[in-house]
Amino acid sequence: MFILLVVGLVGIGVAIALLVPLKVLGAGEPVRRVSATVVESGSCGQGMDTVEWDADGTKKQAKLDGCGHRKGETLEVVMTGGDTVQSAASVPVGPPVSSRLTALLLCMAALAGGFYAFLFRYAPLRAPAVLPTRRQESLS
């Protein structure tokens, strides 16, 4: 009975550790979306588009990690570091819940497998695998 309590508490602890908010785990700030205007359109086989946006009163330009937009088109972008920006539509929103869920299920499967191995190794046998049969005594 004690082992079931331990397995249950460890499972609950792992679930809480994996599902806490990302701020608690020290995640970085969420990406900042800005509205940008396409200044120069690049053909898809040759290069990238150039976009411009207003950053605290100054105009900034960067290469867009994409192509084929019309000149003057407005779209939302996020800064990816360096001198390129990425379209906001291609960036996932929210925490990566699927990877956390995968890790949780992997931990639970490992705990269940360990518990099964424990039962297989240390559980007392309640009945023999083969029941003894009575010998027939010969009538002489």
What does this structure look like?
The protein has helices at residues 2-19, 97-122, and strands at residues 33-40, 49-55, 58-64, 74-79, 84-87. The model has no long low-confidence stretch (mean pLDDT 75). The protein has a domain at 33-88: OB fold (Dihydrolipoamide Acetyltransferase, E2P) (Beta Barrel), CATH 2.40.50. Helix 1 (2-19) packs antiparallel against helix 2 (97-122). It starts with a helix and ends in an 18-residue tail after the last helix. It is an alpha+beta fold and 140 residues long.
Please describe the structure with a list of short key phrases separated by commas or semicolons:
single chain, 140 residues, alpha+beta, five-stranded mixed β-barrel, 23% strand
Principal-axes geometry comes out as: elongated
CATH topology description of the domain at 33-88: OB fold (Dihydrolipoamide Acetyltransferase, E2P)
Please indicate the percent range of residues in DSSP E strands (runs of 2 or more): 15-25%
For the largest beta-sheet, the strand count, sense and barrel status come to: 5 strands, mixed, barrel
Helix content: 25-40%
Low-pLDDT residue intervals, each spanning 5 or more residues: none
Quote the average pLDDT: 75
User: Order of strands in the sheet with the most strands?
Assistant: 1-2-3-5-4
CATH class of the domain at 33-88: Mainly Beta
Order of helices and strands: HEEEEEH
DSSP E strands, number:
5
* SSE class: alpha+beta
First and last CA, distance: 55 Å
Q: What is the level-2 CATH architecture name of the domain at 33-88?
A: Beta Barrel
* Alpha plus pi helix count: 2
The Cα radius of gyration reads 31 Å
